[in-house]
Amino acid sequence: MIKKLCLSLLLSVNLVPSALADSLPERIDFFTELFDYASASKTYDIRDLQSSFPTKLLSPDSMLPQTANYPLKDIQQLYQLSKTCNGKLPLSPLITEPLVFTRSVCKGVKLNTRWFSRSALIHPGGGTYAARYIQKFPEEHETLKKFMHIKERTDEVGDELLTTLQQMDDETISSLIAGSIMFMDREQLWLRRGDYYHVFDKSVWSNNVEKAGLSLSIRSDSASCFVQRGNICWDVEDHSQILRFSMIVLVIANIMLVAGWAVYRWNSKRQEMRSRMLVLQILTHELRTPIASLSLTVEGFRREFEHLPETVYDEFRRLCEDTRRLRQLAEASKDYLQSDNQQLATDWIPSVEEWLLFKIEDEFPEGVAFKINQDVSAKINVYWLGTCVDNLIRNAVKYGVAPVTLDVQTGDSKLTIRVTDNGKLTSRDWSNLRKPFVSKSGLGLGLTIVESMVGRMGGKMKLIGPPTTFILEIPCETDVASR
């Protein structure tokens, strides 16, 4: 399931149009090829547009004083002459045409249409001759309006092109005058194809922008411009959101994979331990019959004890003790294996010191040093705690380095038991030592059982060193020792 999710995510990121592999200019060319020019909302013939609206009548600069074409001093004199109709005349030959116009207006002499058509159209002070002329002769408006700048003309019903041009900003007009291959006007895209401009609405061009893998903005709104066409700045479509989403999904998928692997490993280990516990349960159950039979045999020998020769008394005593221990082990194992979530039964021992000294002297005659801070009576599970201590001491004697010391610290509600030898084990070795069926000679299995039993008694077990020291912390009720 997770593999399919990752595969579909990678495919969704990589499945983009082939145009996305091209350079930015090539993508823009691909974008222009996506349009159906026959379905454009409007189409304008560039030749008709240029004949109806010459560049001078479109350019925003035409409305400003023409200081680049005429001396500033002559423009100022011409302005004074137009206001007062007398004064010193400009001497520059460049002012001849504006001077003729000004003197005609001052004298009230009308100029014919041919004069305007042959003129430069734009007055040195900015604006057209025609617009200034109809202020004096308003009846000539209809005749001369075609010589007026688009900003000077009033809205005319039915002239859609004029209205569109008047609503364009200066940057858009400049793009139109330059004959740009494309430019944007109030969310309408103008595309040039041959001698025609085709106009497309946003619903059309925005889809094609997405298909080409592009993003656009108006030049005046952009701090930087990678590729400019008209008043449009083009850039590659920003996929940062997709990449961010992809990264989040991949991280989540990885977390799910790791979590799934961890759960699988945990379940495998748990199933393995259950299988081994089942084997132990079967063995414990099957051992009860021969142990019971052995107990009956020992009981028969006991009844005939007075008829036994004295030479076998010690062997018979050991046989009785071993039989008793086997019976205790079988019962304790049955109790342990059948009650996973219950604490083990506990009993009071009058003296911890006496109990442990007897165990050491009886089980380890080779000698184990014993220390205790204060003797107390304690309520513990005698069999399993004794087994744990016995296991640790045997491991220290067999695998450790002499001498071996058993150190007991008693408290109001806890016993702390330390088994120490001069070995070099440290806490880092604990994870390997505790693995059942891994360590040599059953050491790992023994430590696993000890740790498990300590946990069942509500305690903790740990390893520190060097020197090698196993520590058991057993919570229990304690009282004054009584011997």
From TrEMBL:
InterPro entries: 2C_sensor_his_kinase (IPR050980), HATPase_C_sf (IPR036890), HATPase_dom (IPR003594), His_kinase_dom (IPR005467), HisK_dim/P_dom (IPR003661), HisK_dim/P_sf (IPR036097), VxrA-like (IPR049705), VxrA_SD (IPR021821)
Key word Transcription regulation present: no
Keyword Transferase: yes
GO molecular function list: phosphorelay sensor kinase activity
Residues annotated as signal peptide: 1-21
Gene3D superfamilies named in the record: 1.10.287.130, Histidine kinase-like ATPase, C-terminal domain
Domain of life of the source: Bacteria
Sorted UniProt keywords: Cell membrane, Kinase, Membrane, Phosphoprotein, Signal, Transferase, Transmembrane, Transmembrane helix, Two-component regulatory system
Record-linked SMART domains: HATPase_c (SM00387), HisKA (SM00388)
EC class of the enzyme, as a word: transferase
Annotated compartments: Cell membrane
Enzyme Commission designation: 2.7.13.3
Membrane topology: Multi-pass membrane protein
Reactions this protein catalyses: ATP + protein L-histidine = ADP + protein N-phospho-L-histidine
GO cellular component: plasma membrane
Domain Histidine kinase residue range list: 282-478
Pfam families (UniProt xref): DUF3404, HATPase_c, HisKA
Transmembrane spans: 242-264
PROSITE patterns: HIS_KIN
PANTHER family assigned: SENSOR PROTEIN CREC (PTHR44936:SF9)
Protein name: histidine kinase
UniProt source species: Vibrio vulnificus
